[in-house]
């Protein structure tokens, strides 16, 4: 075991400009070369103790010419190669810890899936490029029926479409017929749902005459049961995969806002925008940015 040391520590709230309404993230800053780097076992133990959906460790990059920092992302039970709200939250901590003042600026994060590009409008308004999907296509029928049974949904009456949106996290999505159906779905982990990480999506009715750009077009709920989490408040990785599916299929416009966390008393907002600045690039190859605001809630030190 590494010796005990004291590190800067932040807890931020992601996808909200008002603390305690988004998805919390714990970030331990390991940028000081004079301090020992905790072992993987120590990182995992600390993440298990925080009991948040994710805890991250902010490290120097492997190659400073390619990335600004490296991050390791842990749930209470496992390490992830990528996750959305930890990417935004860790980037915000990196910029605030360094007291970055020059905006807008590009940031490159190194993580388990490789290099992730971010754009920071300020240290608390950040977007990342949705990573490529590793698995797509309709979800196997047996799996759909398994999670529908767990959520108390009728497969034939309630579900309009399904899709694998695996992007480092093994997400799949179910599009349900309306927000009311989405809100009544059960989130509790069952023996049958335990092996899965999935989410449900519903579209809000839209009145062109009265709707505003900031009004959410979709409501989202996610259930990372594989990680022993019943329901995640706001999930960047799921929304990144969902955006690629829905924009690519024409269900969603190139720019929209999604709402998540309503069922848990939160009010997360995910801003999605495809980069259509160069129309010579095929639509399915254009970058899709997943953004939101980050509120700092706790700053101090932690001993590991």
From TrEMBL:
Catalytic residues (positions): 54
Pfam families in the cross-refs: PhzC-PhzF (PF02567)
Domain of life: Eukaryota
GO cellular component, one term: cytoplasm
Molecular functions (GO terms): isomerase activity
Annotated Gene3D superfamilies: Diaminopimelate Epimerase, Chain A, domain 1
PANTHER family (alphabetical): ANTISENSE-ENHANCING SEQUENCE 1 (PTHR13774:SF32), PHENAZINE BIOSYNTHESIS PROTEIN (PTHR13774)
Name recorded for this polypeptide: Uncharacterized protein
Upper taxonomic lineage: Eukaryota, Fungi, Fungi incertae sedis, Mucoromycota, Mortierellomycotina
